[in-house]
Structures are given as structure tokens and as C-alpha cells.
From TrEMBL:
The keyword rRNA processing does not apply. Its EC number is 2.7.13.3. It catalyses: ATP + protein L-histidine = ADP + protein N-phospho-L-histidine. Residues 219-275, 351-403 form the PAC domain. Keywords: ATP-binding, Chromophore, Flavoprotein, FMN, Kinase, Nucleotide-binding, Phosphoprotein, Photoreceptor protein, Receptor, Repeat, Sensory transduction, Transferase, Virulence. InterPro entries: HATPase_C_sf, PAC, PAS, PAS-assoc_C, PAS-like_dom_sf, PAS_4, PAS_fold_3, Sig_transdc_His_kinase_HWE. GO terms for molecular function: ATP binding; photoreceptor activity; protein histidine kinase activity. This is Blue-light-activated histidine kinase. Residues 32-95, 276-347 form the PAS domain. It comes from the Bacteria. It is an enzyme of class 2 (transferase). The lineage of its organism: Bacteria, Pseudomonadati, Pseudomonadota, Alphaproteobacteria, Hyphomicrobiales. Residues 194-219 are annotated as: Disordered.
């Protein structure tokens, strides 16, 4: 393509051979003008067209014969007094060449670059359509703007290392990542000194691999820096690619360009996960637990090494799911399936169970399973992940404990029966409601409390069960003679026994003299616990029985209720003999008993 300098030089030659109104050129010069790729035309001092090449014809859509000798302002009257008029006259008057961009007067939405020079007989004018160039530049600016937005949003810095001059260009984001001063240039020495000394050898090796024409390594790499601004150690992720230039038969890297991103938070999170996994492994190993995963589609099980030990397989074995299922104790596999199905039906993906498993030597082991069911997109079981541990010794200990407690309970009952027989022989009163019968009632209450405690391995007894058991002999079906209301709570053993004896005394007294001695009498037992669950208040109320008169002296039953119960409950017991019925109020601390 002919250069602007060549066009201007040609204009000078043409101008030197022209008269005022026309360039007188030979055939060769005319052919040269027509051969120019850029539109070219010449004007005399009166702005009449003296030359008009083929490219100008194509651009304006005018034939040469139509324009030669005509004033340019007659051809384009709309430009009189405009930018072209002003610039053309200025060049003609001053002799200083002018280069400017402007909108094309012949083609809409086009931008042209004009070059105007003065010659003895007028002006030489060439221009070029630079619309594609400007569109490319605008697209590049927009692309750079989008890249800047993207890198800023992703907190990515951009760097460019000129390997020939050893100059470095860092974006402002890249400078911020490194802790360099904004607005100042970055040197190779700064980058080198900021790189962690333990990581610098590898980053240097990576740069050599990337700039080696034989390797051209573009793999991302991670390294640490020590920021000079605050001394923080930060992890960076870098992507780089070298730009190569060929000199003769050889290539060499001339630039190394890439991005950096601060990944310190990600690395810290990864380390936290690894630390958590290490702790989990230690916990699983310390607890002698096995971790396993079952794939429903492939019917395969993957487990930790401990799984083989728990199931009785050799350490080097890789048992299949079928081989594992074959050793379930009869009926246990079906029971586990029912437990898992029930969990899904109630919307729970987690379940746990204890089951029996048979080792190769015939030993029956107890295993505890905790698992999570992973569902597919179709909400069908896809995987099951869980842990299992051997609880055989615990189950055997529980069995021995149950045996011991049952034996103890049996012996306690035998002892109570012996005491009851001795009481009958000792009292020999034979009267209804005499001392012998009262003693037997108290022994019976003690025996019933013992039964309740035995059910829970003497860890406590249900308050509602204690109340129901005491009232059972007096409650009549279909009537409202006995009203019971209150939340169910577990009482410690000493409180359970004392309360059972006290309720037995109250029931016996009500049946003999109080509300339960007449068809119209009623008994109400209500209790409540405060919001903290520590204070219990229980009230026994009798109504509708014979008029009550305070006793002349306190009997054993009253003393048992007011003194023994208050002492064992670590609380307060108030027994009132109101004319309309006996009232007993118990206030006690239940937590920590």
C-alpha cells in the first residue's frame, strides 16, 4: 500500500509541473496517480479540481470527466464555510500541511483521515477510510473495559514482563495483591524480593520452563509472597504464557504475560478441612469405628481398613456386599431395611440401629450402625454412608447388669415377703385396718416403687407411673373420682421411693376416712414444673368426702409424709386438714437429685 509520504512526494512532483488551473502530467505519472490505493485529488488556487484518481472516483461515485475543472464547493455546496473550507484555506494560506479525521461527506457512518498539503498551484489531498480501524479500536477499548471489570470483580491482577528490557508492567490490582505502592512502576527486584524464599526456586524454574521454546509450559502454579507493605504471607495462584519471537532459525521468548490471584483464604480453608479430616480420622481410629459407603447402583461397599476387622474378614480381603450380607444374624438384615425405610417415610435421611453379626468362627457380635441415606435427583436411595462400631462388650455388660438387677429385685421381693410374714406373726391383731394391715400397705407401696425403679435399672422412675400405681386400687372406670394432671418427669430413686410411700399413706387415709370413703368424694393430684425444669410443685386435694377434723395427735403416716418426704425431697411438704378435705402440697427441687 502506498504510504502517506509517497502520496505527498507525488503531490510535490505534480505541483512542480502544473500551471495554475491544471496539473500537466505525462502518461506515466497519471498511471501512478491512478494506481494509488487511497483516493487522491488536487485543487488549484481557486479550489477547482485538477486531478482525480480512480480511487477517488470509486469513493465519491463520480467520474473524472464530471469533476475536472469544477470548483470543489460546487460539487459539495454543503461544505462551504464548514470544516473542509476552513482547513483547505488555512493550508493554502500558511503552507503548513494538515492531517485530520472527520466524517465522510460521501459515505454515511464512515470516518476518513485527510492529508492536505500546499503546492505552487494549489492543494494535494489524499484520504483513507479508517472506519474499520476505529471500530477495531473501539471494540478493543470495550474488550479492555470488560476485562478490567472482570478482573476487578474476580480480584485478578495482570502482569507483563518484558524479557528483553527486564521491565515489568503490573496492573493496579496486581500491585495491591503484592502490597506494592499504587501508581509507581514495579521492578524485577521488587517481585523477586517479595517472593517467599522457600518458593522462589520453584517460581524461577516455572518461568524458565514457560520461556523455553522447547517446553512453553503454561500450567498454573501456586506460591507464597511476603507483602512488603504489612509483612503478611499470602498465597497466590499464577497463570502465565510466554510470547516468542523468531530470529532467523531460532526462537526466543520476548515477553512473559499472565495473571495472579490471591488464594490465601482458599488455602486456609483447605488446611482447615485437612485438619478436620485428620481429627476425624484420629477420632474414628480411637473409637475403633469403621467408615463405609454403599453404592446402590453397583451394589458395592467401600470401607476403611477397620471395617474388615469389625466384620471378621482378613485385613487383605476385599469382601463384596453379598459376602457381607451373608453373615447377618437371621432376621437382622430385614430389620435394618425396615428401619431405613421407616426413616425415609418420616422424611429423615439419618438412622441408627444395633444388630447382630456372625463371625466366621460362629461368634455373634453386636454392631452399632449410624448412617445417612443419600438420595438421587429422583429422590430414590443412591448411596448410604455411615460408621459402624463393635458394641459387643457393652451389650454383654448390659445383659449381665439386667441379670444382676433382676436377681437383686427377686431377692428384695423375697425379703419384703419375709418381712410381711414376720409382721403378720408379730402383730396378730386380726382387725380390719389395724397396725398389721397398715404395715402391709406400706410394704406394698415400697415393693411397687422397687418395681418401677428396676425397670429403669434404678436410674429413676416416672412420676406419672408412681401416681397411677398408687391410685390404681381406688380408681373406678367411667367415673371422675380421681383426676391426675401434670407433665411426665423422671424422679431420682430416693425421691421416687419417698413419694410412693407418701402417696400410699394419702390413698389409705382417703379410703378409710376421706374422699375415697364415700361415693361422692373426689381426689385430684396435679403437678407442674417451672420453665427451668428444676422446681416441682405437686398438690393432693380431696373434696366431697366426710367433714374433716384435725387429728388430736400426729400419727406415723402424717410424720412420714411431713418429715421423711420433706427430707428426701430436699423441699417443703405442707399437710392441711381443711373441713372440706385434706390437702397436701409438695415443693421440691428435682434437678440434680
Amino acid at each position: 500500500m502506498t504510504t502517506p509520504a509517497a502520496v505527498i512526494s507525488l503531490g510535490k512532483v505534480l505541483a512542480s509541473t502544473s500551471e495554475v488551473h491544471a496539473f500537466d502530467v505525462g502518461d506515466d505519472a497519471a498511471a501512478l496517480v491512478d494506481g494509488l490505493l487511497d483516493p487522491f485529488y488536487a485543487l488549484d488556487a481557486d479550489f477547482c479540481v485538477t486531478l482525480f484518481n480512480r480511487a477517488a472516483e470509486e469513493h465519491f461515485g463520480l467520474k473524472r470527466a464530471e469533476v475536472l475543472g469544477r470548483c470543489i464547493w460546487d460539487l459539495f455546496p454543503g461544505q462551504v464555510g464548514g470544516e473542509f473550507d476552513r482547513r483547505f484555506r488555512q493550508v493554502l494560506e500558511t503552507g503548513v500541511a494538515d492531517v485530520f479525521e472527520t466524517a465522510s461527506i460521501a459515505r454515511a457512518d464512515s470516518v476518513v483521515l485527510f492529508r492536505v498539503s500546499r503546492y505552487r498551484s494549489g492543494l494535494a489531498i489524499s484520504f483513507r477510510n479508517i472506519t474499520p480501524v476505529r471500530r477495531t479500536e473501539e471494540a478493543l477499548r470495550q474488550s479492555q473495559a470488560r476485562l478490567e471489570i472482570a478482573t476487578t470483580a474476580a480480584e485478578i491482577g495482570v502482569w507483563d514482563w518484558n524479557l528483553v528490557t527486564n521491565e515489568m508492567v503490573y496492573s493496579e490490582r496486581a500491585k495491591a495483591v503484592y502490597g506494592f505502592s499504587p501508581g509507581l512502576p514495579v521492578t524485577f527486584e521488587q517481585v523477586r524480593d517479595a517472593t517467599h524464599p522457600d518458593d522462589y526456586p520453584e517460581t524461577s524454574a516455572q518461568a524458565r520452563r514457560a520461556t523455553d521454546p522447547e517446553q512453553r509450559d503454561r500450567r498454573p502454579y501456586e506460591y507464597r509472597i511476603i507483602r512488603p507493605s504489612d509483612g503478611q504471607v499470602r498465597w497466590l495462584l499464577a497463570h502465565g504464557e510466554a510470547v516468542f519471537s523468531k530470529v532467523g532459525e531460532f526462537e526466543r521468548a520476548v515477553r512473559y504475560v499472565g495473571t495472579i490471584q490471591d488464594i490465601t483464604e482458599r488455602k486456609q480453608a483447605e488446611e482447615a478441612v485437612r485438619a478436620s479430616e485428620r481429627r476425624l480420622v484420629l477420632a474414628v481410629e480411637a473409637g475403633r469405628m469403621a467408615v463405609w459407603e454403599y453404592d446402590v447402583a453397583t451394589d458395592s461397599v467401600q470401607g476403611s481398613p477397620e471395617l474388615n476387622r469389625l466384620l471378621g474378614f482378613p485385613p487383605e480381603a476385599t469382601p463384596t456386599a453379598s459376602e457381607m450380607r451373608a453373615r447377618y444374624y437371621p432376621g437382622e438384615q430385614e430389620r435394618l431395611q425396615e428401619i431405613g425405610t421407616a426413616a425415609l417415610q418420616r422424611g429423615d435421611r439419618f438412622f441408627e440401629a444395633e444388630y447382630r453379626y456372625v463371625w466366621p468362627d460362629g461368634d455373634v457380635r453386636w454392631l452399632m450402625l449410624r448412617a445417612e441415606i443419600i438420595l438421587s435427583v429422583a429422590q430414590a436411595p443412591e448411596r448410604v454412608i455411615g460408621v459402624v462400631l463393635d458394641v459387643t462388650e457393652r451389650k454383654r455388660a448390659e445383659s449381665r447388669q439386667d441379670l444382676l438387677i433382676n436377681e437383686l429385685n427377686h431377692r428384695v421381693k423375697n425379703t419384703l415377703a419375709t418381712v410381711q410374714a414376720l409382721a403378720r406373726q408379730s402383730f396378730r391383731d386380726g382387725t380390719e385396718g389395724g397396725p398389721s394391715q397398715a404395715f402391709e400397705v406400706r410394704l406394698l407401696a415400697l415393693s411397687r416403687a422397687n418395681d418401677l425403679l428396676t425397670r429403669r435399672n434404678w436410674t429413676g422412675a416416672s412420676l406419672r407411673e408412681i401416681v397411677d400405681q398408687a391410685l390404681a386400687p381406688y380408681a373406678e372406670t367411667g367415673t371422675d373420682r380421681v383426676v391426675v394432671a401434670g407433665p411426665d418427669i423422671i424422679l431420682p430413686p430416693n425421691m421416687s421411693v419417698s413419694l410412693a410411700l407418701a402417696l400410699g399413706e394419702l390413698c389409705t387415709n382417703a379410703a378409710k376416712y376421706g374422699a375415697l370413703s364415700t361415693p361422692t368424694g373426689r381426689v385430684s393430684i396435679t403437678w407442674s414444673v417451672d420453665e427451668q425444669g428444676t422446681q416441682l410443685k405437686l398438690t393432693w386435694t380431696e373434696r366431697g368426702g366426710p367433714p374433716v377434723r384435725p387429728p388430736e395427735r400426729r400419727g406415723f403416716g402424717s410424720r412420714l409424709i411431713e418429715r421423711l418426704l420433706a427430707q428426701d425431697l430436699n423441699g417443703e411438704v405442707r399437710l392441711a386438714f381443711d373441713p372440706e378435705g385434706v390437702t397436701c402440697t409438695v415443693e421440691a427441687v428435682v434437678q440434680g437429685q
